[in-house]
Amino acid sequence: MTRAKRLSRKQLALIEDLFKGESDEQKILEKHKVGRQLYRKWLADDQFTEELDQRVAGAYRQSTFLLAANAPTAAKELAGLTRSKNPETARKACLDIIATNPSTVPSGTGATAQGNAEGPSPISPQTASRLLAVLAGGDSQPQS
């Protein structure tokens, strides 16, 4: 069995700086005295690209955790904005709620990532009625 070669300190430092997001790619290459041709060679190296891919996946995973942790607070704030005295703010909040990505609906509700038109809505009929009433400029109580 052959041992996989390790990335050099220079490669690891370059990757680290790329993920700090403090500068653009060209400036980072200049900082580490890495030419375009060498950088392209590194990008063709499976181990280098695997490290980059792992960093990208990790960054997305972190952002997913952050979004998930703050989703309840954001939802409460958005729902509160539907009762705003400013009609434009209330209207936009209602539209944002209606346009909420169906893929965020828990599994088992019948909604799909594409938004199944025949499946159940991600919001209750009562909530939809209230939102439509606000959008129409009427009161928040649905007519029976």
- The DSSP helix count reads 6
Which structural class best describes the helix and strand composition? mainly alpha
The domain count comes to: 2
Characterize the biggest β-sheet.
Answer: none
The termini sit apart by 75 Å
Instruction: Give the overall average pLDDT.
Output: 80
Write the H/E string, N to C: HHHHHH
Radius of gyration: 24 Å
The rough form would be described as elongated
Oligomer: single chain
Residue windows where pLDDT falls under 50 for at least 5 positions = 109-119
* Beta strands, count: 0
| Helix residue percentage | 55-70%
Q: Which percent range describes the beta-strand content? A: under 5%
Report on the architecture of this protein.
With 144 residues, the chain is mostly helical. It contains 6 helices and no strands. The longest helix is centred in the middle third of the chain and has 36 residues, at 46-81.
